[in-house]
Amino acid sequence: MTKVAFVFPGQGSQSVGMGSDLLASQPNCHEFMTKADQVLGFELSEIIADGPQDVLTLTYNAQPALLTVGAMIAELLIKNGVVPNYTAGHSLGEYTALVASGVLTFEEGVSIVNQRGLFMNEAVPAGQGAMAAILGLDAKTLKKVTDDISNDGFVVQPANLNCPGQIVISGTKAGVEKACSSLKEAGAKRAIPLDVSGPFHSSLMKPAADKLAAILNQVEIKQAVYPVIANVNASVITSGEEVKTLLIEQLYSPVLWEDSVRTMLELGVTHFVECGPGKVLSGLIKKIDRSATVLSVYDEVSLRAVIDASKGWGE
Description:
The protein is α/β, with parallel strands linked by helices.
C-alpha cells in the first residue's frame, strides 16, 4: 500500500526566484503571494522574485518566503489528487507542514513565522550567531566536544540530527568556529558553514521562545487533516496544546529529522514528496533509507512529474 508524506524544507533552502516558474504557469498561485504581502504589510513577493539573496536570507524574510512557496506547492499537489498521509517539516518547515495539514491557516502561518524570525533576530542579531554542518562524526563524540567548548564560555550545541553522519551545530559565531576546528581534529570529515542568519535550535533562542509563546497563545490550533510529525520528539502531534508546546520548544531544541523520517517509515510511508526549493531533504531521506521513493516539487516540470507518477501508486 502506498503511503505519502509531504516534507517541507527549512532555512538555507531559500533562493531568489523560487516558485517563479509555478507562478507563471499556475495563475491561482498568485493568491498566495498577494495574501502574504497583505498579512505582512510589505512586498514579500518582490523579495522572493528579485532578492537580493542577502535580504531574502534574513530570518524574518526567509521564513515566510519558504512557507509561502511550500504551502503553494502542497495545495497544487492536493488539488491534483496527490494527497499526503503525513506531513513533516525541517525546522521552519514544520510550520509549512502545519499549514498544509490545516492546523494553521496560511495567513496565520505567514504572520507567525515572520514574527518568529523577528524574535530570533532580536535574540541574536544577524552575524553574532552561526551554524555549521558536521559530516562523518558520531553524535556522542560531537556532543562531548561541543559540551567542552560551551563549558569554556563559547555556546555551541547539536541543533539538527539530520541523517547518519550529518549533524548541524549551532551557537555563537566564536563557538561554532572553535567547534568546527575541534571536531575536525576529533575525526569529522568536513565542517560546512550554513547560509543562515542566526543560531537556530540553540539555547541562545530561549528569549525568542518566550515571545513566540505569547503569539501562539492567541492562535486557534485546529485539528490536523493530515497528521504532522513533530521535530522535537519525532512523534505524531495529537492535540492543539501539544502543537503550541512543541513549537515553543522547537526554537531551542534539536531537530530530530533522522528520527522523524524513521517514524514515518515505521508508519508505512513509502513515498516522500519534498515541497519547496532545492532537494536538501530528499538527499537526507535517501541517506536514511535508500529504499524510500523520494521526489521533489519546485517547478512546473517537477510538479507534473509527481502528478503523473502518482497515478501509478495505487492504494
